[in-house]
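User: I'm writing a short methods note and want a consistent example. For TDG/mug DNA glycosylase family protein, I'll paste the sequence; you return only the structure tokens, no commentary, since I'll be parsing the reply automatically.
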Amino acid sequence: MGFTRAELAAAADRVIPDVIAPGLRVLFCGINPGLYSAATGHHFARPGNRFWPALHGAGFTPRLLAPAEQDELPGYGLGITNIVPRASARADELSPAELTAGGAALTAKVAEFRPAWLAVLGIGAYRAAFARPGATVGPQPDRLGGTGIWILPNPSGLNASYQLPRLTAEFTRLRTEAPPTPGA
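Assistant:
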């Protein structure tokens, strides 16, 4: 599905509802929705985004799901949310205050839904939202209540440092190394 520039511009500031349920194994957390995703109403919908292929390639799902099938994720113990809910053309359009407020809102969401793991997709956004400048990809020493935190690379096609094989390897590491319950 293609969109005109005007249609994409009209998607700015839209919010995509979370795909979430109590007690998920992993709640994946994007930085914020892009305009293409906001226009479709589906997370990680832009062609070239590698979230869905990495999720499947890592063995989280038995088949490659399309963004329009995002509501199937809770059946696999998975969900999706964002640090900042509003859509923008680029993540660098978000202010530090928005990221900090998003971190506080995410903390409350995790307390309510209690996933075993929060997997934040984007190290820079995690560092800004949670004031953790030294955070690196992988499991974090911090917890949100009983929820473990794992940082994954941003799956955007703009993240040239992580091509699909390397990104899938990081997703696989989460799936295989993170027990269903942190500390288990």
